[in-house]
Specification:
The chain is an alpha/beta fold. The chain has 17 helices and 20 strands. It has a seven-stranded mixed β-sheet, with helices on one face. Strands 6-7-8-9-12-13 form a six-stranded mixed β-sheet.
Length: about 550
C-alpha cells in the first residue's frame, strides 16, 4: 500500500481554499498510485485557529467543508486523512474537539479526537478543545492503524525524562495491536527542532517495532512558522521517506516494502533559520492581503538582513527602502544603504529628517525649558522616522517591516513609536550574533552584493554624535549568551555569571533591563519565532509587577 504525505500550507480560516488545496493534492496522489493521503493537523482550518473555534459559524462551516472534501474525493481511489475542528459529543465541557477524519470513497469512516491538549509556550489548546478519553485503531487495507494528533505522540519520551501527562496514547495504541502509526501535526519550527523530532519519532518506531508516518503543516501563520519536514520510518526507526523543509511537498511511501522518496534539505541550521524567516515573512504579507513592503534602510546590518529576506519573500519589485538621514547620520550609512538597494535591485528613496527634527525642537524647547538634552531628543529622531514610514505605508498600502533584533528588543534598545513602528518584526527572535551569520547567508543568496562595510562596521543607532551600541551594552558576543540563559532557559543571575565567568553585577544589570522593558515588548509588532522562547505569544510576563531577580 502506498501512502502519500500531503505536506500543505493552509491559511487559517480560509476553509474553502484549504479544501481546494487538499482536493488537488489528493488527485495528484491518486495519479501516483497512493491508496491513502495524509494531511496535517487541523488542515481544513489551518493551525492555530485560536478563538475562531468559539464562533458557531466557524465550526458549522468547517463541517460543511469536511463534507465537501468527502464529496470531491469520492471518485478517487485514494482515501484521505485530514484534520478538522469537530463538535464534541460530550454533554459537558468544551463544545469542540481537535479531530482527524478518515474519508474513503465519499464516506467518513473513522474519527479520532485529540487526547493530549498542549497548553505551554505558544500552545493554548485546553482553552479551546475537549480532550478525547481514549484512542482506537482502525483497519485499513489489511493494516491495523493507530492515528495520533501531534501532542498525542510527544508524551512518548525516553525513561527518566519528565512527562507532562499521565497518559501515553502511542503506548495504548501499540498495546491494542497497531501495526502502523500515523501522526498528523502542526509542529512549529525552531532551531534544532527538526533533529529533535526525528530522534523522538524514530525512537517511537524503533522501541515499538512499528513503522510510522509523520506529516506536518508547512507555512507561516502569524508569529509561527511551520517547516513541514514530514517523514516516514520503518519498524527499525530508519527514515525511508522525507519531504522538503519550508515548502509544500507530496512524497509517497510503500508501507509494505518500506521504500519511499527522500527529499532532504537544510543540513545547516542557520540556512534553515534563514528560510524560515523568508517563508514566515512571505506568508504573513500574503495572508494578510499585502503585496508591497517598506523598510527603513539605515545602512546597518539589521535593516540589510530584513531587506534581503523581503526580496526573497515577495520579489524586489515589491520592496522599497527608505533612507532617512538625521543630524547624526554618518556619510557612509546613506552610501551603504544606497549601494545595498542597488545590489538588491529595490526602489530606494531618501527623505532626510534633520529639518523636521529641528522644527520639533523649536516646538518643544519652550516647554522643555532648561532641561538638558537626553534620550528624549534621541527618541525624537527615531519617532520621526516611524512617522515617515507609517505615512508612506498609509499612502501606498504597503506593510512596514521593522528591523530590530532580539538582543535589542530584550534590553529595550529600541524606541516605541519609532523604529518599533510596523506590521511585522521579521528578526525580533534573531539575536544579533545570529544576525551576522544570517547576513552572510543573505549575501551569498544575493550574489555577494551586500557592501562589506555593513558587516564590519560597529553597530550604532546614530542618534547622538559618535554613538555606538557598545557605549551602553556589552559586546553582543557577551550579551547574547546572557540573554539566551535568562530568556530561553530561565536561569538566575548567579547561575549565569558562574557558568559564563562574568561579573554578577554585569549579568544583573542586563537582567534588570530585560525586566524593565516588558512594556515595550507588549507593544511591539508580531515577530517570527525561530528560537525555543520568543518574545510574543509564547512568553507571557506581566508588565505591572514587582518581582526582581
Amino acid at each position: 500500500m502506498r501512502i502519500a504525505l500531503g505536506q500543505i500550507n493552509p491559511t487559517v480560516g480560509a476553509l474553502e481554499a484549504n479544501v481546494d488545496r487538499m482536493v488537488r493534492a489528493a488527485k495528484e496522489a491518486a495519479a501516483m498510485g497512493a491508496r491513502l493521503i495524509v494531511f496535517p493537523e487541523l488542515s481544513i482550518t489551518g493551525y492555530p485557529p485560536r478563538d475562531l473555534v468559539e464562533k458557531p459559524s466557524f465550526v458549522r462551516r468547517t463541517h460543511e467543508q469536511l463534507l465537501r472534501l468527502a464529496a470531491e474525493t469520492a471518485e478517487l481511489s485514494t482515501a484521505v486523512i485530514c484534520g478538522f475542528v469537530g463538535a464534541s459529543s460530550e454533554p459537558e465541557g468544551k463544545l469542540v474537539t481537535n479531530s482527524a477524519a478518515l474519508i474513503d470513497r465519499g464516506q467518513l469512516i473513522f474519527r479520532q479526537d485529540k487526547m493530549l491538549l498542549p497548553t505551554y509556550d505558544v500552545f493554548d489548546e485546553w482553552r479551546h478543545f475537549a480532550a478525547a478519553e481514549r484512542q482506537s485503531i482502525f483497519p485499513f487495507e489489511g493494516k491495523r492503524i493507530g492515528l495520533t494528533i501531534c501532542e498525542d505522540a510527544w508524551n512518548d519520551l525516553q525513561s527518566g525524562e519528565r512527562l507532562l501527562y499521565d497518559r501515553n496514547p502511542v503506548d495504548e495504541l501499540a498495546q491494542e495491536g497497531a501495526d502502523l502509526l500515523i501522526s498528523i501535526n502542526a509542529s512549529p519550527f525552531e532551531m534544532d527542532k527538526r533533529h529533535t523530532r526525528r530522534e523522538l519519532f524514530c525512537g517511537i518506531a524503533r522501541r515499538r517495532g512499528i513503522p510510522l508516518v509523520w506529516v506536518n503543516q508547512v507555512g507561516g501563520n502569524d508569529q509561527l512558522v511551520f517547516d513541514g519536514s514530514s517523514f516516514a520510518t520503518d519498524a527499525q526507526g530508519n527514515v525511508v521517506a522525507a519531504a522538503r523543509s519550508f515548502e509544500e511537498d507530496l512524497v509517497c511511501i510503500d508501507v509494505d516494502s518500506m521504500r519511499g522518496e527522500r527529499r532532504e534539505s537544510h543540513a545547516d541550521e542557520c540556512e534553515a533559520v534563514y528560510d524560515a524567516l523568508v517563508l514566515g515573512t512571505r506568508d504573513y504579507i500574503r495572508k494578510c492581503g499585502f503585496r508591497k513592503v517598506l523598510i527603513g534602510l539605515s545602512g546597518g546590518l539589521d535593516s540589510t538582513l530584513v531587506a534581503a529576506i523581503a526580496v526573497e519573500a515577495v520579489g524586489r519589485e515589491n520592496v522599497t527602502g527608505i533612507g532617512m538621514p538625521g543630524p547624526y547620520s554618518s556619510g557612509h550609512s546613506l552610501a551603504d544603504a544606497r549601494a545595498l538597494a542597488v545590489g538588491l535591485g529595490i526602489r530606494f528613496e531618501v527623505l532626510p529628517i534633520s529639518s523636521a527634527y529641528e522644527e520639533m525642537l523649536r516646538l518643544l524647547d519652550p516647554v522643555f525649558g532648561d532641561a538638558p538634552r537626553d534620550v528624549t531628543e534621541e527618541n525624537l529622531q527615531a519617532r520621526l522616522r516611524g512617522l515617515t514610514l507609517m505615512s508612506l505605508s498609509n499612502k501606498w498600502g504597503a506593510l512596514v517591516l521593522t528591523t530590530g533584533n532580539k538582543s535589542e528588543l530584550a534590553v529595550g534598545y529600541c524606541t516605541l513609536y519609532g523604529d518599533m513602528c510596523g506590521g511585522l518584526a521579521v528578526i525580533s527572535d534573531v539575536p544579533k550574533t545570529l544576525a551576522y551569520r544570517l547576513t552572510e547567508i543573505a549575501n551569498g543568496r544575493h550574489g555577494n552584493t551586500i557592501p562589506g562595510s555593513i558587516m564590519t562596521k560597529p553597530p550604532s543607532a546614530e542618534l547622538r554624535p559618535d554613538q555606538k551600541d557598545s557605549d551602553s551594552l556589552p559586546p553582543y558576543e557577551v550579551l547574547d549568551p546572557i540573554l539566551k540563559a535568562y530568556v530561553e532557559n530561565f536561569e538566575g543571575p548567579a547561575e549565569i555569571a558562574a557558568a559564563q565567568h562574568l561579573p554578577e553585577d554585569l549579568v544583573r544589570d542586563i537582567i534588570r533591563k530585560v525586566d524593565l522593558n516588558e512594556y515595550k515588548r507588549h507593544q511591539a509588532a508580531p515577530g517570527l519565532k525561530v528560537t525555543t522562547k520568543a518574545f510574543g505569544m509564547g512568553r507571557r510576563f506581566p508588565i505591572a509587577q514587582r518581582f526582581r531577580e
